[in-house]
């Protein structure tokens, strides 16, 4: 339902996007089961598996939950389709060693494992918003 207070919101957002007067954009993205609030030039440390892209690869993050600027915020239900977040893989490394020790007393059962997680550092290059559609019935 369109009310007088919400009518034309998409037009005002599109005007700010076309004039590039929205200021510094921020976004909430979803990677690896976690949500991160990012802006341009941010570094993220993410727990990943070995199959994550190699160092220097550019990736496009499509799972954007929210994006905002100086005068507006758009919330996806659940995701936003018109937002593009680009990032570059900066580093791939392992975390510190964690000790996993299993022991049952008087049974002679002892197990010791050293566990390391795969970590990936990515840098957010840009957050781009395309034209917003007015979803009015």
Give a short synopsis of this structure.
The protein is built from one helix and ten strands. It has 137 residues and is mainly beta.
Summary keywords:
single chain, 137 residues, four-stranded antiparallel sheet, 8% helix, bL21-like, RNA binding, Ribosomal_bL21
Structural class: mainly beta
**Largest sheet composition:** 4 strands, antiparallel
First CA to last CA: what distance?
8 Å
- Strand % is over 45%
- Unreliable residue runs: none
Helix content: under 10%
For the residues shown, what is the average pLDDT? 89
User: Which of globular, elongated, flat, extended, rod-shaped describes the shape?
Assistant: elongated
Q: Spell out the helices and strands N to C.
A: HEEEEEEEEEE
Taking all Cα atoms into account, the compactness measure Rg is: 21 Å
What's the total helix number?
A: 1
The total count of strands amounts to 10
Number of domains: 1
Largest sheet, order of strands side by side? Answer: 2-1-5-6
Family: Belongs to the bacterial ribosomal protein bL21 family.
Organism: Bugula neritina
Keywords: Ribonucleoprotein, Ribosomal protein
GO molecular function: RNA binding; structural constituent of ribosome
């Amino acid at each position: 339902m369109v009310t007088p207070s919400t009518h034309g919101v998409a037009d005002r957002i599109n005007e700010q996007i076309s004039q590039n007067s929205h200021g510094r954009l921020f976004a909430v993205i979803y990677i690896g089961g976690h949500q991160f609030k990012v802006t341009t030039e941010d570094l993220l440390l993410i727990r990943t598996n070995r199959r994550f892209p190699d160092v220097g690869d550019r990736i496009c993050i499509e799972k954007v939950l929210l994006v905002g600027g100086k005068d507006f915020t758009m919330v996806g239900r659940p995701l936003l389709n018109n937002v593009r977040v680009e990032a570059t893989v900066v580093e791939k490394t392992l975390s510190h060693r964690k000790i996993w020790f299993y022991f049952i007393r008087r049974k002679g059962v002892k197990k010791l494992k050293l566990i390391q997680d795969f970590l990936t550092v990515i840098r957010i290059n840009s957050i781009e918003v395309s034209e917003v559609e007015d979803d009015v019935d």
